[in-house]
Amino acid sequence: MEIAGEYKFEVPQLALWEVLQDPKALSLIIPMAMDMKQVADNQYTGVLFFKVGSVAGLFRGKIELFNLQSPTSYEIKVQGSSPAGRVDIVGGIRLEESGYDTTMYYEGKLTFGGPIVSVGSRMIEVAVRSIIQQSFDTLNRYLKLKYKSPKRTEGRS
């Protein structure tokens, strides 16, 4: 399965870049993510609860960031497994700042194996896209609170 898209965040590029590499922040932002830890430079571990149809599981995995071009882009590799199956993701993000906002362009290829495949690729795609949208919406709210966008407060007393 391939995914690609973009999302506009209401914060400067550097603020977004920093949070995208903070495992504690990402644990709060990604739905059902737990125990995210940095284990080496640009390497993380974590657990994600993932449910599609009647198949669910705690996926334990590794995340590796590479080809970092601070603060504009990186590539990512994710490997996760559980009794419900396995997932491998290879992709990347690119950030473009425009004024006070930053647009993230993302793309990736996801490969699933094991029992989770039995629910069908369409259901998996819907679940993945939902997690991505929820994560970005939550990340945007988190960033707006953390960095309090000046364009949101100008002219108010």
Give an overview in words:
By secondary structure, the chain is α+β, with helices and mostly antiparallel strands. It has a single domain, classed as Alpha-D-Glucose-1,6-Bisphosphate, Chain A, domain 4. Helices cover 29% and strands 50% of the residues. It has four helices and seven strands. The protein has helices spanning 13-19, 23-29, 121-147, 150-153, and strands at residues 2-9, 33-40, 43-52, 55-69, 73-82, 85-98, 101-113. It has a seven-stranded antiparallel beta sheet, with helices on one face. A hairpin with a 2-residue loop joins strand 3 and strand 4. It is globular and about 45 Å long. Residues 152-157 have low confidence and may be disordered.
Spell out the blueprint of helices and strands.
Layout (H helix, E strand, L loop, with lengths): L1 E8 L3 H7 L3 H7 L3 E8 L2 E10 L2 E15 L3 E10 L2 E14 L2 E13 L7 H27 L2 H4 L4
Antiparallel strand pairs: 1-7, 2-3, 3-4, 4-5, 5-6, 6-7
Main sheet, how many strands, which sense, barrel? Answer: 7 strands, antiparallel
Let me know the average pLDDT.
88
> How much helicity do the residues have?
25-40%
The strands making up the biggest β-sheet line up spatially as 1-7-6-5-4-3-2
- Provide the structure class: alpha+beta
The rough form would be described as globular
The radius of gyration computed from the alpha-carbon positions, rounded to a whole number of angstroms, is 16 Å
Number of strands: 7
Which stretches are poorly predicted, pLDDT < 50 over at least 5 residues?
Answer: 152-157
Strand content: over 45%
* CATH topology (level 3) name: Alpha-D-Glucose-1,6-Bisphosphate, Chain A, domain 4
The CATH H-level superfamily is START domain
CATH class: Alpha Beta
List the total number of helices: 4
Distance between the termini: 49 Å
* Shape-level CATH architecture: 2-Layer Sandwich
Number of domains: 1
The oligomerization state is single chain
Sketch the topology as an H/E string, one letter per element: EHHEEEEEEHH
